[in-house]
Amino acid sequence: MQNIGKTIIFAGIIIIAVGLLVYFFGNKLNWFGNLPGDIKIKKENFSLSFPVTTMILISIVLSIIVWIVRKL
Question: Which residues have CB under 8 Å from 57's CB, separation 6+?
Answer without folding.
Answer: 35
